Structure formats: C-alpha cells, structure tokens
Input
Amino acid sequence: MSTETIKKQFKLYAPSTQKSYELNPNGTLTIEGVASTTNKDLQGDIILPSAIESMKTQLLTSTKNLHGDHEDKLFDGIIGAIKEVMDTDENVLKIKSVIRSKFAAEIKEMLDIGIK
Output
C-alpha cells in the first residue's frame, strides 16, 4: 500500500475541519470534524447512507457522549460530548464536540502539531 493511499485512508477516519484551536474560558476545547463517511474505513468497513442518516437523527434529538478509545487507547472513557451536527449529507456526518478540560490541553497540543 502506498504512503499516499495510507494518508487518504487516515484523512477519512476523522479529519478535523478547524484550522486553529483555542481552549474555551472554562478549560474545555471545542472541535469540529468528520464523525463518519460512506467511504471504506481503516478496518475495511463501509457505513451505509441510511446509517449516516440514523446517526444524524440521533444526534439532532439528544447530546451523545464522545469516547476516546477508538485507536491506540490514548484516552479511555468519555472525553466530551457531541453538541451539534454540522453541514452533513447522505455520505458524510460532520459534528461539533466539546472536549472535557481533563483532556482538552493534550488534545489541543496534538491537533496543533498535526496529529489527527
């Protein structure tokens, strides 16, 4: 697999759409990014458009927790809350989340240096 292919796959995982990051006055961090797409993910799974719509509907009716345990076990447990569905279509689910102050500075630093 080429490096370019790996980069494209990783970008589809959960790229942030923000260009700069500032901690909120209460120490939390607000971030925006792609939560899911209909593109094949790193595990080879494909999410159906109907699943994107279902996730969007769930998020529009209640706040959901954001868990940090997807990869490398960097952050275990609940790291924040999904607060808003952003510009979304049948193929992409974009969200805005607030990261708990306990994790905010470390996640901000990671994002600032280019870790996604």
Notes: Residues 1-14 have pLDDT under 50 and may be disordered. The first strand starts at residue 29 and ends at 37. Residues 3-112 form one domain.
